[in-house]
Every structure is written in C-alpha cells, then in structure tokens.
Amino acid sequence: MGSVSNEELLGKIRGAFKSAFDIDPQAININTVPSDVSSWDSMGHVTLASSLEQAFGLTFDVDDLMAMENVKEICRIVQSKLGQVQSA
Amino acid sequence: MPVRPLAEADIPQVADLYWKVLRERTGSTPPSVRAFIQELYFTNPWMDASLPSLVYDDKGTVAGFLGVVPRRMTSQGKPVRIAYGGNFAVHPDFRTTLAGLHLLRTYMGGGQDLSQTDSANDTSRALLERLGFTTILPFSVHWVRALRPARALTYAIARVAQRSLTDSLAFISKPFCDIADKLAATLSSSPFRQVQSRLHASELDVDTLISCVSQFRNQYNLFPEYDAPSLTWLFSFMERMKGHGQRLRKILLRDDSGTVVGWYVYYLTVGGFADVAQIGGSRKQLGEILDHLFRDAWQEGAIALHGTSDRRLMDIYSDKNCFFTCRGGWTLAHSRKPGFMDILNSGDAFLSRLDGEWCLAFGG
Prior knowledge:
The complex is a heterodimer. Chain A is an all-alpha fold.
C-alpha cells in the first residue's frame, strides 16, 4: 500500500467525503455505499472524485471514476494509484 | 449493468420522468408527453438501432433516461455519425445508484463518431466535462438583439425579479415602453432602427433549403446532411411541438434578380424573445439578411431575437448591435476519433440549432 497506512487512507477519504458532501466524516467506513449518503449521486460522485484528487494529489480517469462505486473500491483504486506513483 | 436500450414499453415511465423531473411538474403526465417521447425516439428519420436511447433499469423500474438522436453529417467527404444526447433525467429516489454516470458512460461508448449536446446547463456541463466531454466555445456563444429594447429590458428584469414586482412593473411601464420602443425603431440615430430591406421574402420550402445548404456549407469542414424526408419530419415536429415558440417562420431571401442570397428559420414568440434556429447565406450579404430577420420578427411582435453565433460571422452580428452571451445552453462534444474535436473547437462547422437536440424540444 505504499507509505500510507489503511487508517491514514480511510482518514483522508473521510476528509474528502466531508469536503464533498459536508457530512460527519465518522459516518464513513469501509462498507459505505452511495445509498448511505443522500447527496452521493452522479454529480456528487464527480465532486467527491475532485476532493479525492486534491486529498491524495492524484488524477482519476473515467474508468477510475466509474469503478469507485463504494468506499471499498475507492480505497482499492487510491492504493493502486499511490502504488503507481511510488514505483514511477 | 442495468443500462439497456429504450423499449416502447418504457414510454409511460420515461414520460413520467420527463414531466416530473425535467419539467418539474406535478400531477399526472399528459398523454401529449407520451406522444412526444414516442414520436421523437421511435419515429425520427435518423433512427439507428446501433445508437439507441438508454434507460437505467432498476428491477423493472426505469430509474433514469438518456435520449439519443443520431444525426448525419459530412466531414472531408466522409460520413460522420453524431449521437446527440438530451432529455437526461434520473428519478430522485434512484440518484444514489449513480444511474446518471452509468447512462452517460454507456452513451459515450456507443458506435458514433461524435457524442454531442447543444443545450447543456451548468450542472450537466460539469458532469460531462468530468467524463471527458469538451465545451465547444464557438458554438456556446449566443447572440441577442433587442427589437423593442424597453420591453426587452422589462422582460429581462422580470426573469430575475419577483412575480408580483414584475407584474406591477410591466403594467406601470407599458405606456413608456411603447413610446420608447416606437422611437427606437424609427429614429435614424437609433441602433435599434428598423430598416426596409431590398430583399424579397418567400416561404422557405424543404427542397430549397437543401439546395441552399449544399451551396453554402462547403466553406466548412463539418456540415449536416439534409434530405427531404428528414427535414419535412423535423419542421412538422417543430411546428407541432412548439418547443421554443408559438410559430415557426421559415423565410427564403432573394435579391432583385431573383438570386437566392440567404434564409432564416426561427420560432416566433409574440411579446417575447424569438429563438433563431438557423441563418444561412454568404458572408457578404449577412448584414442584409439580419436586417430582414430583425424587421420580420419586429413586425410579427417579438421583443428580441436570440440565436447561436457563428464565430466567423461575429463581427457582422456585432455591427448589427447584437450582444453576446454564453447563457443560453452549452455545446459539448466527445470523440475518440482525432480531428473532429479540432474542427469543432475551431468553429469550422456549419452547425445550427436545426442540427442537434435544441430543435427537438417539447413546448407543452
């Protein structure tokens, strides 16, 4: 997972959710899905992706965006991207 | 994935989505909306089974809809398949399914050369840009020309102010507006003066329009392919649906020798802004064509005209006291094939509001 621990990763993801949806970050856990967050619709998803990009200094392409369908997948994609950045 | 092509059996649910979500209406959906959806998506003359409209099906419920209308164009001698997306709606109870993203992604992955929309609002624009669409600025600039400037100003204020205030304002200001607008149309120093055109007008028929477009379009690298059945259907559809006005005016202009110099098509709204669908003709004579259009719309009772600009001709619109704005619907496009985006971004296309989804609106 590179230099970011699981806890740090989830913490940053929670921060991105707070920034995107103005919600209590503690409400977000690894099992959170869009239906758990009322404003996590298509437009919200795009806003969330931008917040995640800012939080991690990454860029997501459209395939990443479509694959990030829950927090578990977001973690997987962010980890994978961070790994790519480290090995580059 | 629950995205699939629209079927005729979906029409009632799609019509409900259109009425309640896109039009923000309450109560039962009028039968005319179902007829509109049926005609637009199952009888349009450009139908192509490989470029279908899409629904997001959540266990039998149509949770989202994206209408797709293919249009045929030509670029550098080769046919171009354009899929125009529009009437994009997701049921509020299903928004967290991310149905909108899935619909757009499926649409973008279709077999078209270009995915395009010509009437996106700010929200759709942000979503589409994130998915890889580009805002095409040359086709997102709109021109506005006041014909009755005092009433146009009152009308513009009415759109941003409270209803009670504007009703009073309209009532109190009407006598003043009538006088001011009369002066504006007649004083020789007025920028809004109506001039008598030397051009001769007649009704523009479909065959003549096809001939006109084929004569003038060759200055561009991308242009629409018109034929009589599809244009006949389109004009009939526009006249019946009244998507942007009360009446469609289609005018052909000739000079004294009988030579065709240009044409225009617009939706007339008496006492409101008239929306121009297409203006054509040579650059040299565009000033006269515009003068004719302004006078025609003024005589018919419009208070202002509004249309999309052609970047190559903006200086002439400016000379005719039009002003420009990007508030009127964004044109966005996406293509996996190189070249098309460059053509669009450079404004090197004869694209009008007759060629996209704008003209396929429902006004009921």
